[in-house]
Amino acid sequence: MDIAERLLAGDVRGLARAIRLVEDRDPAAEAILRQVRGRAGMAHVVGITGPPGSGKSTICDHLIARWRSAGHRVGVIAVDPSSPFSGGAILGDRVRMQRHTGDDGVYIRSMAARGHLGGLAGAAREAVRLIDASGRDRCLLETVGVGQSELEVMQTADTTVVVATPITGDSVQIIKAGIFEIADVFVVNKADVPGASKVARELRDLVRQTKGMTTWQPPVIQTVGTTGEGVDDLLDAVERHHAAITESGELEQRRRRRLRAEIEAIVVERAAERARRELRDGTMGSELSGDLRGVDPYGLADRILNGHTGRQDP
Ligand SMILES: Nc1nc2c(ncn2[C@@H]2O[C@H](COP(=O)(O)OP(=O)(O)OP(=O)(O)O)[C@@H](O)[C@H]2O)c(=O)[nH]1
Ligand SMILES: [Mg+2]
After folding, report:
1. Closest residue (by CA) to atom 14 of ligand 1?
2. How far is CA 233 from CA 97, 187, 239, 254, in A?
3. Are residues 72 and 209 in the same domain?
4. What's the CA-to-centroid distance between 46 and ligand 2, angstroms?
5. pTM (two decimals)
6. Where a domain ends, among 230, 248, 266?
7. In this structure, are 285 and 203 located in the same domain?
8. NCBIfam families from the xrefs (predicted)?
9. Most confident of 18-22, 136-140, 213-217
């Protein structure tokens, strides 16, 4: 069996190989993605984001355990955009979730920054699709830290959980980080630490003020990661959100939006690649070696995009 067939049969090693190819941007990945495409779309993708050390992995670990006892198969992608190290970068995640190693109903993979950040979001999205196609009906996407690249990665999620704590700061921090808007569910973790109720109250007020008109009001749930307290409420909120957006058609809309964004990203990537090629060794290169004052960059860019570069494509 080839890699795609093994993946579709639910084989975890086939899945791992396919994700590796995607991450390495191996040309073979595209064919695999095409082959499995029709089988994806069943998984509920849950994104978990929030400041470093807020307890995301600890919470993921509890969710995995609950999903497993309910008979679900689970995939986890832990993304660390800030880390320059490849693969296995997120040691803490491995440690936190390691009680699941040996259970092939749980697949956990770390991804770190390689090259540019848009590429990371793309790789994460494709990895999620592979997990989905391999018959895992729950997929967790954890991002470490808060920034633009996390926001991009989180666009892949159907339900986004934003984790705050009394330690990592109040709701103002969440707003500054730009993650308030993307939250479908708020978690105030470390509820055993003083100040948790205050943060929860602030977030509830903010939700009331800013999302008063929307049909889904993001609930604010207090949890204690170390004991698992509140995790059942979180799970309940996550599943209610999924049911609500499925019923309202919002899930379908999100997926269409996502697909448009994906196509756009692929076009950008391919156009940039083409431009680099043309400017390096196409006829365009020679136009740039003469008198620079006569060069019209917009005109040349249009010619590259339209394929009018005066050269036959190989
Ligand atoms: N007191 C307390 N500590 C907690 C709680 N939840 C998690 N922790 C601890 O907080 C630390 C960080 O937990 P992680 O789950 O690794 O946090 P994270 O958000 O995944 O961290 P990064 O991936 O590094 O951003 C660990 O030492 C946990 O044991 C909690 O509810 N209360
Ligand atoms: Mg973590």
Report:
1. 55
2. 20, 10, 10, 25
3. yes
4. 15
5. 0.88
6. 248
7. no
8. lao
9. 136-140
